[in-house]
Amino acid sequence: MSTWNLRYAPASLAAVFALGLPAFAPDFMLFEFSIAVSYGIAILGLNLLLGVTGQICLAQGALFGVGAYTTAILNVSFGWDPVATLPFAAIVAGLIGVVVGLPALRLQGLQLAIITFGVASAFPQLLLKMDTLTGGVTGLATDQPMAPKWFPGSQEVWLYGLSLICAAISIVVVTRLLRGDTGRMLRALRDNPVIAEALGVNLTKGRLAAFAVSSALAGLGGGLFCILNGFISPQSFLPMKSIDILIGGIVGGITSIAGAFIGAVFVVFVPGFTTDIDPALGGLIYGLCLIAMMMVARQGIAGLRIEGLQKAVLGIFRIKGLSRIPGSVPGQLGGE
Amino acid sequence: MTMLQVRGLSAGYGAADVLHGVDFSVEQGTIVALLGSNGAGKTTTLRALSGLIPARGTIEFCGSDLNRRNAAQRVVLGLAHIPQGRGTFGDFTVEENLAAGAYTIGDKRQVAADIERWYAAFPRLAERRRQQAGSLSGGEQQMLALARALMSRPKLLMCDEPSLGLAPAITEEIFEIFKSLNREHGMTLLIVEQNADLTLQFADTAHVLESGSFTASGAARDLLGSEAVQQSYLGV
Predict the structure, then answer these.
(1) Residue A139's CB: how many other CB atoms inside 10 A?
(2) What confidence score (pLDDT) does residue A169 get?
(3) Rg (Cα) of chain B, in Å, rounded?
């Protein structure tokens, strides 16, 4: 098989799967996949930020929440059509993301991780305090965009289509960014910020722009999540959500676009699967799954090549083969 | 014509100054060397000039005051800095590294033409254009770093210890390239080096830096083999 085929294998497989899904999946499963797509958009943002520019953000779940609340408030308090609120969910989260990213101008790696996680921890409390706007503990229930009469499928298929359109827009934005000068600039910032600066890259602008785009994607995903779920409350955006998004990014493949959505499907479905296996031991099995994932696929699922997959499966049975993959892992936590 | 005029330049890291008010100038079309042993403040000087660290004093470059400009704006003005240890992007191909060097150039055709121009000057890079820069030898990486810096069409090229980690024969080759850039393209160069004997053979003027101040300055041929230079290395 040519290298081209291998390089695009995860992306093509994911696309074919996503488009073919409504043909055979039952409605309730389609709903879960739509939720996974909304997370996938937020993970895509994190992949851009962490995988491509090397900056960690553990507030992605909070920014996801900012998008969700923007959609809900515009719909509930101002009567906007839910779909029309999505661009604003992205913009508001993008602006807040720039503020969250300001410390990144001075701090990187672990310090930045803690600062952004601080934002994620404060976020649910802030929602409770601003209860006139956010509805406090009771949360907000939003209208759902109804499928038009001419649409042959069910309401779930309609919403799934909306999710795919949002995902497609996000993918186009990210691919365009990664191409050419901008993409090179972003990778240069990750690989060697000092050299990038010596070549004329404006460090401040580059880092904040990456935060803005990443957060805007989180906001779009959050807005979509709000529409799909029809109801949000501070419970939906606990600090753990940011960790789930990070796990999705790393398990899917932190430098990969397809990996973002593969990782989202993983974090949405696998905890449920493991609970199905044994309700009492679900968390344990999920934990073991995560450990196994990192031993077999350090670059994430999307990073597995076809022949790599073969080797990885064999590797499970050969202890010596485990965790001896040479070379640096892109996007790993660390300073400059 | 004076291209770069530096007066009372002080800089350092945190609270401590490494450089204590040096004055020097670089004339257009010349090769100027900054010599000195480890920790003398050579790298700090270059970083201060290119805006990678904050500095005090005045830096005038082609008639503009650099103090009020950040690193990116200084590149646009024509100041290129090849940092110590080359700093090529290992995951980028040779060609991507060159393109990254033209970050400040908007004209795509000019970038493409410049890439071909430097491939012609450095055939070894042309042969490896699709290879990852990390797989190049030390000498090739230094060449790549040099060509990458030239992509921004600089007026003044500053190079920090080009000889670091290179075999003597390769170092000499790099200096020959500097010489030909200077002679054939009229490039002005500011070179920081520990290898005083070799550098003085190629430079026009030189300054010897010791603990953040100049201990000797003058024409390179006068400093070659002079006591001041030997002292600065042996007298530490």
Answers:
(1) 17
(2) 96
(3) 17
pLDDT in tens, B36-56: 888 888 999 999 999 999 899
Q: How many CA atoms lie within 13 A of B165 on its CB side?
A: 11
Cα separation values, A142 from A29, A76, B137, B227, Å: 21, 6, 61, 83
pLDDT per position as a tens digit, B184-231: 888 999 999 988 888 988 999 999 988 888 888 888 888 887 777 777
B91 interfacial to chain A (CB closer than 8 Å): yes
Which residues constitute the domain of residue A181? Answer: 3-321
> How far apart (Å, rounded) are the C-alpha atoms in residues A66 and A36?
18
Which CATH number belongs to the domain containing residue A240 in this structure? 1.10.3470
Run of H or E including A107: none
> What's the topology of domain B2-89+154-234?
Rossmann fold (3.40.50)
**Tokens for A242?**
């940011």
Please indicate if any CB of chain A lies within 8 Å of the CB of B95: no
Q: How far apart are CA A206 and CA A209, in angstroms?
A: 5
Q: Which two tokens stand for residue A262?
A: 């593969």
In the three-class reduction of DSSP (H, G, I as helix; E, B as strand; rest coil), residue B235 is classed as coil
Nearest CA in chain A to B47: A198
A2: left (phi over 0), alpha (psi -120 to 50) or beta: beta
Are the Cβ atoms of A184 and B70 closer than 8 angstroms? no
φ, ψ at A42 (rounded to 5°):
-65, -40
**Boundaries of every domain in chain B:** 2-89+154-234
Q: What residues of chain B, 134 to 163, have a C-beta less than 8 Å from chain A?
A: 148-149, 152
Count of the separate structural domains present in chain A: 1
pLDDT above 70 coverage of chain A, percent: 88
CB-CB: which of A192, A194, A200 is closest to B103?
A200
Encode burial over A164-198: b for 16+ CB neighbours within 10 A, e otherwise: bebbebbbebbeebbeebebbbbbbbbbbbbbbbb
Quickly count: other Cβ atoms within 10 Å of residue A99's Cβ: 12
Most confident option among A36-50, A268-282, B41-55, B201-215 = A36-50
Pairing between β-strand B31-35 and β-strand B55-61 as defined by DSSP bridges: unpaired
pTM of the entire predicted model: 0.81
Tell me: ipTM over 0.85: no
